[in-house]
């Protein structure tokens, strides 16, 4: 069975700029590994509304939510307190009931890669907690 929706994403990349806060740091005075994925989620939340025109609130109003199925992060360079960085994300592919989002986190001043990876998100019906197929109108909005 093919679990890929019939629409191919445009792979358009969107960016959100952020800054390292004191509570992001670990005992080594650089960003804790768990925060990098938090940055990706914050960027996606921003980009869903601003770049795709359908924010998380619109999904919730339809009784839908996104769950992380799988994620992978490769750490390249540490981010430190006060450092500005850019989170760039794009939809790499659609699944029957979700998307694969790829991302890069780059230092703002040098554009050097701090981390990169991907996450598979599943669209879920919040009433029953089960995966649900992507509606065509959502695929159309996100296939840019």
Summarize the structure.
Strands 1, 2, 3, 4, 5 and 6 form a six-stranded antiparallel β-sheet that branches. The protein has a single domain (14-142), classed as Roll (Thiol Ester Dehydrase, Chain A), CATH 3.10.129.
Describe this structure in words.
The chain has 144 residues and is of the alpha+beta class. It is built from three helices and six strands, in the order βααβββββα. It has a single domain (14-142), classed as Thiol Ester Dehydrase, Chain A (Roll), CATH 3.10.129.10. It is 22% helix and 38% strand. Strands 1, 2, 3, 4, 5 and 6 form a six-stranded antiparallel β-sheet that branches.
Query: How many independent structural domains?
Result: 1
**Cα separation of the termini:** 26 Å
Flag low-confidence runs.
Answer: 1-7
Radius of gyration, taken over Cα atoms and rounded to an integer in Å: 16 Å
Helical content class:
10-25%
Key structural traits:
144 residues; alpha+beta; Thiol Ester Dehydrase, Chain A; six-stranded antiparallel beta sheet; 6 strands
Topology:
Elements: E1 14-19, H1 33-50, H2 56-61, E2 64-75, E3 84-95, E4 98-107, E5 113-125, E6 130-131, H3 136-142
Antiparallel strand pairs: 1-3, 2-5, 3-4, 4-5, 5-6
């Amino acid at each position: 069975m093919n679990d890929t929706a019939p629409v191919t994403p445009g792979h358009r990349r969107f960016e959100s700029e952020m800054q390292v806060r004191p509570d992001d740091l670990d005992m080594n005075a650089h960003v804790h590994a768990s925060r990098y994925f938090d940055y990706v989620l914050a960027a996606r939340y921003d980009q869903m509304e601003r770049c795709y025109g359908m924010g998380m609130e619109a999904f919730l109003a339809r009784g839908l939510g996104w769950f992380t199925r799988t994620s992978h992060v490769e750490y390249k360079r540490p981010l430190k307190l006060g450092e500005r960085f850019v989170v760039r994300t794009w939809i790499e592919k659609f699944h029957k009931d979700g998307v694969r989002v790829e991302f890069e986190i780059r230092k703002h001043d040098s554009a050097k890669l701090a981390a990169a990876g991907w996450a598979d998100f599943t669209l879920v019906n919040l009433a029953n907690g089960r995966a649900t197929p992507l509606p065509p109108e959502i695929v159309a909005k996100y296939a840019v």
